Inverse folding.
């Protein structure tokens, strides 16, 4: 995973010119000093000195603390911390991430994740202290060289970590409550035909077919590979010689190609090439069953579109638009693949 300019095995990533500005989900983060004193003391204890600089990182879907830290003794770290307010589920997600990141940390620099240094809890707060990775998120709009590096990392994750070295549940179990968008749309239509009148007429006419296909996605996505299940630009860090994947709360095991299918709509929405151009040439897609891919893609599209028409989560005002934009791309890709 170097920074050379050789063509990646999946072919060049051609970026379309004159695309609209890419959507980026924004949030309202808490600052380092808003963490409970007990948690801040624990972090400073782990780094061996008081924190003299804390730089908030604004990307991501959480309203909690996310800050790069520098201690008085020169040691550095990255802390992410959440409370049950305003989103009661987020402490549980941080605990899940801690378990998975801890297991991946045992792989050292050979692993795909940053090193987890410690985990702290106080009242309803959970804080994870990581090594501070000297890297940056990929630029959006996506640049060809950075996209090639990330796509190579997806290949590495899918092949080198199959079977998964981490004890994780099947992706169908991990995301099963979310990937029911078409079935929820069908139920909403049955209750009130106007409830989903925002759907394209062709998709509305196929709503029952889409809901039936979606119901089979857990089988279609099954496999033994470690999947991140939440890959997008703000969950990736590029260093001089590594591609580091962060935020492992949703990790699971599944088909090698699952992460690629799920992330390509976001890549295109943020200025990258059309999904088919990347997927059809990518190594992990070569042995994928086309109908299984269509089934999982349908489930992804349903999730994005349904979430894109729900009220925003507290502190995440742009999230519905972010989801809807991905859903539009995923649905267009599905229509292209199915010849509808």
């Amino acid at each position: 995973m170097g920074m050379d300019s050789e063509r990646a095995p999946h072919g060049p990533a051609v970026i379309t010119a004159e695309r609209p500005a890419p959507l980026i989900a924004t949030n309202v983060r808490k600052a380092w000093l808003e963490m409970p004193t007990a948690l801040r003391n624990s972090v400073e204890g782990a780094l061996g000195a008081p924190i003299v600089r804390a730089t908030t990182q604004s990307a991501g879907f959480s309203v909690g603390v996310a800050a790069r830290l520098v201690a008085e003794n020169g040691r550095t770290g990255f802390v992410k911390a959440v409370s049950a307010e305003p989103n009661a589920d987020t402490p549980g997600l941080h605990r899940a991430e801690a378990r998975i990141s801890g297991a991946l940390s045992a792989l050292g620099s050979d692993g795909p994740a940053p090193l987890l240094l410690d985990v702290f809890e106080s009242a309803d707060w959970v804080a994870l202290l990581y090594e501070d990775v000297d890297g940056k998120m990929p630029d959006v709009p996506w640049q060809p060289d950075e996209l090639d590096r990330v796509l190579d990392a997806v290949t590495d994750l899918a092949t080198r970590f199959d079977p998964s070295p981490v004890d994780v549940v099947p992706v169908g179990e991990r995301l099963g409550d979310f990937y029911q968008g078409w079935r929820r749309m069908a139920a909403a239509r049955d209750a009130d035909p106007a409830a989903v009148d925002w759907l394209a007429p062709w998709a509305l006419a196929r709503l029952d077919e889409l809901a039936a296909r979606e119901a089979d996605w857990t089988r279609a996505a099954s496999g033994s590979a470690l999947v991140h299940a939440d890959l997008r630009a703000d969950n990736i860090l590029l260093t001089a010689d590594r591609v580091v994947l962060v935020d492992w709360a949703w990790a699971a095991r599944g088909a090698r190609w699952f992460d690629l299918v799920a992330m390509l709509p976001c890549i295109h929405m943020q200025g990258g090439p059309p999904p088919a151009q990347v997927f059809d040439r990518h190594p992990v897609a070569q042995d994928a069953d086309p109908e299984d891919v269509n089934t999982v893609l349908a489930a992804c599209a349903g999730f994005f579109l349904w979430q894109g028409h729900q009220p925003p989560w507290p502190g995440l005002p742009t999230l519905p638009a972010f989801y809807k934009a991905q859903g539009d791309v995923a649905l267009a890709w599905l229509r292209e693949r199915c010849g509808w």
Remarks:
- Strands lie at 51-56, 65-71, 76-82, 116-122, 125-130, 225-227, 236-238, 243-245, 252-254.
- The mean pLDDT is 91.
